[in-house]
Amino acid sequence: MRLLRVATCNLNQWAMDFDTNLRNVKESIARAKAAGAAIRVGPELELTGYGCEDHFLEQDTTAHASLAAETCEELFTANAPRIDLALNGVEVFMNASGSHHQLRKLNLRIDSIRNATQTCGGVYMYANQQGCDGGRLYYDGCCCIAVNGDLVAQGSQFSLKDVEVMDALVDLDAVSSYRASVSSFREQASHRTNVPFVKVPYKLCQSFRNGMVPTSPVQVMYHCPEEEIAFGPSCWLWDYLRRSQAAGFLLPLSGGADSSSVAAIVGCMCQLVIKDIEKGDEQVKADALRIGQYKDGEIPTDSRELAKRLFYTVYMGTENSSEDTRSRAKRLAEEIGSFHLNVPIDSVVSVFLSLFETLTGKRPRYKVDGGSNAENLGLQNIQARIRMVLAFMMASLMPWVHNKSGFYLVLGSSNVDEGLRGYLTKYDCSSADINPIGSVSKQDLRAFLRWAAIHLKYSSLAEVESAPPTAELEPIRANYNQLDEVDMGMTYEELSVYGRLRKIFRCGPVSMFQNLCHSWCGRLSPSEVADKVKHFFKYYAINRHKMTVLTPSYHAESYSPEDNRFDLRQFLYNTRWPYQFRKINELVQEMGKDSKWDTPAEEQLAAQTSAQGSGMGVVAAGSANPSAGF
Hints:
Protein name: Glutamine-dependent NAD(+) synthetase
EC number: 6.3.5.1
Family: In the C-terminal section; belongs to the NAD synthetase family.
Strand content: 5-15%
Number of strands: 13
Helix content: 40-55%
Mean pLDDT: 90
Low-confidence stretches: 599-630
InterPro entries: C-N_Hydrolase (IPR003010), C-N_Hydrolase_sf (IPR036526), Gln-dep_NAD_synthase (IPR014445), NAD/GMP_synthase (IPR022310), NAD_synthase (IPR003694), Rossmann-like_a/b/a_fold (IPR014729)
Number of helices: 22
Distance between the termini: 70 Å
GO molecular function: ATP binding; hydrolase activity, acting on carbon-nitrogen (but not peptide) bonds; NAD+ synthase (glutamine-hydrolyzing) activity
Structural class: alpha/beta
């Protein structure tokens, strides 16, 4: 037997912090050597950090670091370097990766790693970065070692550790035997293109000794999407908090699904910190003592007590707010342990309206009270923007009030679907320092709330999840209650569909209409589908400018509309889409002549009723809401 001990790692690196990065690299090498490993692989760009972006164009950056092996993207390419190398007899492959987290993505990565050695045989060592290295991405680790299609070692996907090393004892004779058993591999190897080799005067393998047993395959560990939403953003927030030198977070907590999700994620972060301290992680302990400003001899032992030190939640209610959301926010804050404030802002709103009346001689009214759409929109926006100003004021001054040093980071809580539709006020309390859910869909957040109510033990989240989403920016009347999906003219489920078609499948208005005509055939007529597609693209175009000032958000979803990196498009559109909408109208007329698209009135009504039950929208389109303007 030719036995070889190999090691791979997850490293929590920070772009351009060469001292920290080098320290982590050396620590991983020391641990690999202590385990007896002859080969160690680290993540891609482990000395510079992965997210240096334009810093890579600077002479300094390249002078401070230099890497070689199969790198991140080459794992997923059709003609990967390992294929020719395997046919030439190479048995051990190393991939230095910088792969970021995305919901439901890990299985694709693991399958690629397993398939890499299943088709050609061999040992595949995969290393990755882990953590927030200074941007929107969270690198989700999961270093691993695969042999002939089986995983024999797997590191954590989400962790607060700076260094994690995994090793395995592998048998290279098993690789030779595996390849020899595949006749097609032998045939292709006989016609290989030779690659250059460099001979070195030492051996990596150990001879067999009693008690040396190759590492057995392990069961692959996957997190469900709800766990990914809990742990990924939590670890990202912890890295951001400790590296920014901030003293904590402040969140405008409305009692709705989005802000409650953010609060639960911060609570989860506090739980993870306490667990790692209990496990003896000295780095996490040191960071918690510094951020929480503990006195000498004090040690964090309870997540609620830790949250009280570094997490402020603020309910900023008006006359339009309900007692339900107020009480939900208070109960959730108590369960998490945050320092919670109830701040009525009606008096501040009144001052602005009185000033406006003094200047113009007019006082705007809500639409439900007889006002115009412009008045209704203006009244909603002023409430939303006052909350943003107050949030930042309290984030900078509340530490001073409590005799603490430093400042608090303001957390935003708009989700990916609202960003896509533009259903948010520009410069409202969605404008923050960072946003942990900015690329998570509403549907995924509601599933997360159900999960967190049980697994994080925040029982009030079950009530939050069951409540209909509402902005509470208009007066509540006996015959009127503001609801998000009615305001938007579409459901959150439809928004997820539109988002995936627009970004992932690269659909414009016409191709989206064509796709949805087939997807929704039997439920909606072509003319109804056309109305929905045109309504979406109209408001997408009107509100695209808001993406230019979107709060930096944790990247979790492939159809994220943020225009810093993931969705590079113009922000000034012809909102009428004259050519595209004309083509859709032509297609509707052509389809109307085709009998298979004919739908009797009774069937249309049944389809609409079914659509309501499944989240398909039969909601009012074009009502005034804070998404419509600036």
